[in-house]
Write a structure and sequence with these properties.
Transferase(Phosphotransferase), domain 1, 12% strand, Phosphorylase Kinase, domain 1, Rossmann fold, alpha+beta, six-stranded mixed β-sheet, 32 helices, globular, six-stranded antiparallel β-sheet
Length: 748
């Protein structure tokens, strides 16, 4: 075959041979590029294997991901069927492992990329079923490519092997695969665990001199702890390996996104332990930050419209799973600073930046947009639009699609389609909606009512416009104690939120924001935890790249005590919105409740460095020190906060808790008296008084305060009951507290 030309492919050399065929390096003489050709072997030209070969190509060709080998075409010449695919120069993981175990940081970097590629395949219903180190290539630059979807199974379509066959490489087979049972994507998660173990230790977790012995080991034995084979392995790896290699599939990781989150946590911890400069795991996805559009209009009040234009483009681009889009909070943090493009790119970890400007005069718009490559500052694309205001959605869509084309990002696995829908024909209503978003973003007791007024006016002008209803429901939620503004009592907010969210979902059921608000409503106002979980999961399905969606879903996990899940989802949010204080606070708080106090301390100190006026960072920092019995540092944190926030009731309660743990009863009594006086001015949660009762050693009074909090539907109850202090943990077993938890449907 060497030297022959098949179709327009000139074969250069043989690369390898497997059970299904032979692979050659070749030149595409038309496109003048080097590719790889995979031929079905002569022995396997029977009808069944030929059909399987076709399905292999169809399955793999449906995938377009940086960590999956690209399939260019499938062809047949003179009875020889072959796949044309990307030629990858590098080594297989198997070859690298033969030289010894991988460095810890390299193993995680490679593993995250493999997991990212598998996640993309699983999202399209494709299971690889033959993941192994020999099927994973690593280029010279360290990019991972998953090869050979020959054993793939497409959900809803024909399987590529019979259900009860044992195709695949035995050492990497999951228990269900070894038993010949039907398999799903979790069999890939098992094989991934085998590969990770192999990278970390240089050997396989399950071994045997012959296939039957190896299968017995897979089905019945536990692998030797990886830490016993790799002495410098940081803590945490065994838990990941154990969960990936759980013999029962329902006890395994259920999706690759959770694997990725845990690996990234390990990566940061590993670097910290090594006292090196913190890095981030390279994200192979194209990345972009959309900066706030400059207001070139004569009227400075048009700034909200310019911000809204940029935000709508961000929202459109977040629909693309294969594009990492920095969230609004981080991108807009550079507004008005005239910061160099390269500095912005470095801080946000993006390759490209979109800048723009808007000049609005009456119904006329002039919008300019430039897509800039961070590395060299060159424009990849620029355009000017002179249009009517009615064309605003078409402009947003054109800009979004132009970016996608330039970044060569796949749109939902299909041909490019519209990203920005025309949500209303009433431009005045749309204008008011953008203005409402502008006020809502400011998040203060003064601007929240202004946002509500704008959303209501937009609805009056176009009652069929769904987005203002969803934003109105979100705004009402934020105006209760859930959002911290305390502008609405719960009995007032209940019908307002329910009516707005129901209307939004009736008009547009695929609106992620509306599902998030519904999830919180179900939890906070109905104690309906399954309903809350279902709504939040639906929101993530609709838009898994929207930071607001991720934050609110993590908040659901907070309420229900699932702090590890909150950490995982917030690390996804952090990758998209690294400069957001809310994102950082949610991670720090999650670490605290997960009893990971050192990480909570580090995160809270980072928040205070970013903005020393972020109140909750001081509370979680102080409590984390206290949980480590470092009471002097805890109290010093509170004293540092006092000049900034004054004698705030929550801060005083934190100090009372500290003195109680420290055994300083007189200080607790003095603070309690002050808090009682402040309660005449502030609406203070009964939960805070429960804290001072515990600090004074009065358990019965603490229980009475908790029961009162339940009557008021106080959202602080779940947080209080999961507070990592011995006094609270002993209180949870009390029959009266158990009764409260049962009524709330809580199992913390």
């Amino acid at each position: 075959m060497i030297g022959k030309t098949i179709s327009h492919y000139k074969i250069i050399e043989k690369l390898g041979e497997g059970g299904m065929g032979v692979v050659y390096k070749a030149e595409d003489t038309k496109l003048k590029r080097i590719i790889a050709l995979k031929f079905l072997s002569a022995i396997a030209l029977g009808g069944e294997d030929k059909s399987r070969f076709l399905r292999e190509a169809q399955a793999a060709a449906a995938l377009n991901h940086p960590n999956i080998c690209t399939i260019h075409a499938i062809d047949e010449v003179d009875g020889q069927m072959f796949i044309v695919m990307e030629f990858i120069e590098g080594q297989s993981l198997r070859e690298r492992i033969e030289d010894g175990p991988s460095k810890i940081e390299d193993a995680i970097k490679f593993a995250v990329q493999v997991a990212d590629g598998l996640q993309a395949a699983h999202e399209k219903g494709i299971t690889h079923r033959d993941i192994k180190s020999a099927n994973i290539m690593v280029t010279e630059s360290g990019q991972v490519k998953i090869m050979d979807f020959g054993l793939a199974k497409i959900a809803g379509g024909a399987q590529l092997t019979k259900d009860h066959s044992t195709l695949g490489t035995v050492a990497y087979m999951s228990p269900e695969q070894a038993r010949g049972e039907p398999v799903d994507h979790r069999t890939d998660i098992w094989a991934f665990g085998v590969v990770l173990y192999e990278m970390l230790t240089g050997q396989l977790p399950f071994r045997g001199e012959y296939e039957a012995a190896m299968m017995y080991s897979i089905l019945n034995e536990e692998p030797e702890p990886a830490s016993s084979l790799q002495s410098d392995m940081p803590a945490g790896f065994e838990a990941v390996l154990k969960k990936a290699l759980a013999k029962k599939s329902d006890e395994r990781y259920q999706n690759m996104s959770d694997v990725i989150a845990d690996l990234k946590n390990l990566f940061v911890g590993t670097l910290s332990a090594m006292s090196t400069t913190k890095q981030s795991i390279p994200d192979s996805k194209p990345s972009i930050a959309v900066m706030p559009f400059a207001n070139m209009s004569a009227d400075p009040e048009q700034e909200y419209f310019c911000d809204g234009m940029a935000e709508e483009i961000i929202n459109a681009l977040t629909q693309l799973r294969e594009l990492r889009v920095v969230a609004r909070t981080s991108a807009f943090s550079f507004k008005g600073q005239n910061t160099d493009i390269r500095a912005i790119g470095e801080k946000l970890k993006v390759e490209t930046i979109l800048e723009g400007s808007v000049r609005k005069a009456g119904n006329r718009l002039r919008i300019t947009a430039q897509l800039i490559k961070v590395a060299d500052g060159y424009h990849l694309w620029s355009q000017r639009y002179d249009r009517q205001l009615d064309d605003v959605f078409a402009i947003q869509d054109e800009i979004s699609l132009s970016i996608v084309e330039k970044l060569k990002t796949e749109l939902f696995g299909e041909q490019p389609q519209v990203l920005v829908q025309r949500v209303t024909d009433n431009m005045e209503a749309y204008n008011l909606y953008l203005k409402g978003l502008h006020y809502r973003r400011k998040w203060s007791p003064q601007t929240a009512p202004q946002a509500v007024a704008c959303f209501k006016q937009a609805i009056e002008l176009d009652p069929e416009f769904a987005k203002p209803y969803a934003s109105l429901a979100g705004c009402y939620t934020e105006m209760t104690d859930v959002g911290g503004l305390n502008l609405l009592f719960r009995d007032e907010a209940y019908p307002l939120i329910k009516d707005a969210v129901d209307k939004a979902l009736t008009l547009e059921n695929a609106l992620a924001e509306a599902h998030v608000v519904l999830g919180l409503f179900n939890c906070v106002f109905e104690w309906d935890w399954p309903g809350g979980e279902q709504a939040c999961k639906r929101a993530l399905e609709l838009n898994s790249n929207d930071v607001s969606t991720l934050i609110w879903c993590a908040y659901y996990y907070w309420i229900t005590g699932c702090y590890d899940e909150a950490i995982a989802i917030m690390h996804r949010a952090e990758a998209l919105d690294p400069l957001s204080l809310v994102t950082q606070h949610m991670i720090g708080g999650s670490y605290f409740f997960a009893r990971r106090f050192d990480e909570a301390i580090e995160r809270c100190q980072h928040i205070i460095e970013m903005d020393d006026h972020y109140f909750l960072a001081y509370i979680y920092l102080s409590s984390s020190f206290a949980c480590k019995s470092e009471f002097e540092q805890a109290l010093a944190t509170c004293q540092k906060a006092l000049p900034i926030f004054g004698r705030h009731p929550v801060l005083l309660h934190e100090m009372a808790r500290l003195y109680g743990r420290w055994g300083k009863r007189s200080e607790v009594l003095q603070l309690n008296e002050e808090i009682e006086m402040l309660s005449e001015k502030y609406s203070i949660s009964p939960i805070l008084f429960a804290w001072t009762s515990i600090a004074l050693g009065d358990q019965e009074e603490a229980i009475a305060h908790i029961e009162k909090a339940f009557e008021k539907c106080d959202l602080l109850i779940p947080f209080f009951l999961n507070w990592p202090w011995p006094e609270v943990e002993s209180l949870r077993s009390h029959p009266r507290i158990q009764a409260v938890m049962q009524k709330m449907g809580l199992e913390l």
